[in-house]
Write a structure and sequence with these properties.
Number of domains: 2
Low-confidence stretches: 1-7, 368-379
Mean pLDDT: 80
Oligomer: single chain
Shape: elongated
Largest sheet: 4 strands, antiparallel
Order of helices and strands: HEEHHEHEEHEEEEEHHHHHH
Structural class: alpha+beta
Strand order of the largest sheet: 5-4-6-7
Radius of gyration: 25 Å
Number of helices: 11
Number of strands: 10
Length: 379
């Protein structure tokens, strides 16, 4: 049997959306690094290089006061903060052993010369910066553009489901069910979920044109594992203006929900890996989601950027070598033992950690690759 790979080529509009996504992701990464930068400088550590982008350097400016090289690199993807005492080759514990062995006690602006607590603060400052940025983005989105609330407007339709089969289209606004007016999206969903196999008569406005459809909900998953009646469409969330205090309160509430949900999903990778992996997205999946969210306006995109920032912060806190969390774990062990980790044990941890990291990357990328192979493309 011959398998044909069908790739959907992006349009110029799609390319523009990809660029917006790359810029957004790069800004979040640079601000992550800026978190390391601020706390490092506050603790008297010299920052040798602070770069925007990767690859060959286009512009360079050296601060006469601090000696830090500020670099603008050719590839606008991410950035980095290189501190004195970091060689970029060996791990946290090994660098600390080398520094202690050298006995350079006068080198007080070296990262390795700082106390374990100071080094831990510098390491976790990046993820904490991502969390702060997420809160700022959510507050901005909710205070300026409004809090998204589910409406009765039809969004994305699922193929071969009752709604699309009956003739319902994206953008239709459902105004009544069985002759009873509906204005609340949650009330609409409740009516649908409790009517498995029961005909529902929908009154719909398509622009200024009134239409009517008869649909029969089928048994489906509501996203939490419970079987309920579904018609096969997503509701469009429309912004609702709120007071600034309400926007702040909602931002912290949503932040907590996303954090707990993300950790729960990460735990699911170990307990139910096959089922949980389907809910994760790699770079291609994130680019696709970014494209869809951009069509919903800046308010939705700010919230999406906040979600990505939270994910970056949590991912970097994972206790895996090469990530901030892995570095932090070695520092915590050093604080408990009073000395760096033994080389043999450290090497064993690195082997296991990198194996977990590779497995995680494969999990979150598999569904992206599957969509490309099936011809769904990036957008």
């Amino acid at each position: 049997m011959t398998h044909q790979l069908a790739f959907a080529l992006p349009t110029f509009a799609d390319i523009g959306k990809i660029l917006v996504f790359i810029i957004m992701l790069s800004v979040l990464v640079v601000l992550h690094e800026y978190g390391h930068f601020i706390v490092a400088r506050r603790n008297g550590v010299t920052v040798n290089d602070f770069a925007l982008g990767m690859g060959p350097t286009l512009l360079k400016w050296t601060s006469p006061r601090s000696g830090t090289n500020y670099l603008l690199n050719a590839l606008p993807i991410g950035g980095y903060c290189a501190m004195k005492g970091e060689d970029g080759k060996t791990n946290e514990a090994e660098q600390q052993r080398q520094f202690r062995g050298a006995g350079v006690v006068h080198d007080s602006d070296n990262f390795q010369a700082k106390t374990p607590l100071q080094r831990l603060a510098i390491v976790v400052a990046g993820p904490i910066a991502n969390f702060i940025i997420a809160i700022v983005l959510l507050v901005t989105s909710y205070a300026v553009f409004g809090v998204p609330q589910p409406s009765t407007v039809v969004g994305e339709l699922q193929a071969k489901m009752p709604a699309i089969t009956a003739g319902v289209r994206s953008g239709d606004r459902i105004v009544a069910v069985n002759g009873e007016p509906v204005q609340d999206g949650d009330a609409l969903v409740a009516r649908i979920q409790g009517a498995v196999g029961v005909p529902l008569h929908l009154n719909v406005m398509r622009g200024d044109t009134p239409l009517a459809f008869t649909v029969i909900p089928v048994l489906g998953d509501n996203g939490t594992g419970h079987k309920v009646g579904v018609l096969g469409f997503r509701r469009v969330s429309l912004p609702h203006r709120v007071a600034f205090g309400d926007a702040v309160s909602r931002s912290f509430s949503d932040f907590g929900t996303v954090v707990t949900g993300t950790f729960s999903a990460l735990g699911g990778l170990f307990t139910h890996p096959a089922a949980t992996a389907a809910g994760f997205s790699g770079p291609v999946g994130l680019a696709r989601a970014s494209s869809q969210v951009q069509d919903a306006g800046w308010g939705a995109y700010f919230s999406f950027a906040a979600l990505i920032s939270i994910s970056l912060g949590i991912f970097n806190l994972l206790p895996i070598p090469a990530l901030d969390g892995g570095r932090g774990v070695f520092i915590l062990v050093e604080m408990l033992r009073g000395k760096p980790v033994d080389p043999e044990k450290e090497a064993l941890v690195h082997v296991g950690g990198f194996a977990i990291l590779i497995a995680l990357m494969l999990f979150v990328s598999w569904h992206d690759v599957s969509k490309l192979i099936s011809g769904q493309g990036v957008f």
